[in-house]
Design brief:
This protein has 294 residues and is α/β, with parallel strands linked by helices. The chain is built from six helices and 15 strands. The longest helix has 22 residues. It is globular, with a radius of gyration of 18 Å.
Length: 294
């Protein structure tokens, strides 16, 4: 049986960039000490979630790739001997920025990157102001621990990206995330939102016969503009198996490190029992490339 130990770092961030990196470094080391070979971080983990407002000064947070952050995380991956999935604010060129996941190999080199494809534009999530939609497509990243189908946050609501990753041999679906509640929502509505978030990703696991790893940030982050009461990021980082079964799940109230053992051979068995890929009517799916069918 092929198994893989995965570390999930669910962290609350503050306004001190250096302190955030120190916490991340300590948390990564902690899950590695428990046997993690692959470590996944949350979305935009270096800083506060700056997309609550539209502020041109926030573009100063972006870095080129390669750059200082890739040097920092590459060295961590090399020192600890792990594959590491990070989420960075990429400055590609003057005026051109992306929300980019960078994956590091055990020797510290960059194994690959994924630029977030679906960019939200909602109250307190003004990402279209900052990020250009990705142009690297949906392609798994080959690493020494397997082919990683990495996407980012808002991508997790779309089944098409998960399916395209699966069709190219992804062993795992991975989603660094930053999602939470607006304080004016009722408790019932908050639970509906959280339930939908978990359910849709478990659905990707079922439909593709693959494990899913979702790592979300946690804690309250105020709105610098004062227009809202900020975002309470709901945590609940989790790992689901290839039948959608919840293998592990963090709380929605605090920082937490998870180390989860995943059976990589189970996907093959599940796909033999439930041959969804065999039975797909690809000859009838042309309409999926249209925005809407009148």
């Amino acid at each position: 049986m092929r198994t893989l130990k995965v570390g999930l770092v669910q962290q609350a961030n503050g306004g001190d960039f250096r302190r955030n990196l120190e916490k991340l470094s300590a948390n990564i080391a902690a899950v590695v000490a428990r046997g993690a070979e692959l470590v996944v971080l949350q979305e935009l983990h270096n800083t506060l979630y700056f997309c609550q407002t539209e502020d041109t000064a926030c573009f100063d947070l972006a870095e080129p790739i390669p750059g200082p952050s890739t040097g920092f995380y590459g060295e961590l991956a090399r020192e600890l001997g792990i594959v590491l999935v990070t989420s960075l604010f990429e400055k590609r060129a003057p005026g051109l920025y992306h929300n980019t996941a960078v994956v590091f190999e055990k020797d510290g080199t960059i194994a690959g990157r994924y630029r977030k494809m679906h960019i939200p534009d909602d109250p307190a999530y003004y990402e279209k102001f900052y990020f250009t939609p990705g142009d690297l497509g949906f392609h798994p990243i080959q690493t020494s621990v397997g082919r990683l189908g990495v996407q980012v946050c808002w991508d997790q609501w779309y089944p098409e990206g998960a399916r395209l990753m699966a069709l190219q041999g992804a062993d795992l679906l991975i989603y660094p995330t930053a999602i939470g509640w607006e304080s004016s929502d009722t408790d019932e509505e908050k639970m509906r939102q959280l339930g939908a978030w978990v359910t849709v990703q478990r659905g990707h696991a079922v439909a593709n016969g693959l494990p899913v790893i979702a790592v979300n940030r946690v804690g309250h982050e105020p709105d610098p503009s004062g227009q809202t009461r900020g975002i309470l990021f709901w945590g609940n980082s989790f790992v689901a198996g290839p039948q959608g079964e919840l293998i592990a799940q963090a709380s929605n109230t605090g920082e937490e490190n998870l180390v989860v053992e995943i059976d990589l051979d189970r996907s093959e068995n599940v796909r033999r029992w439930w041959p969804f890929l065999r039975d797909r009517r690809i000859d009838e799916f042309g309409g999926l490339t249209r925005r809407f069918i009148d």
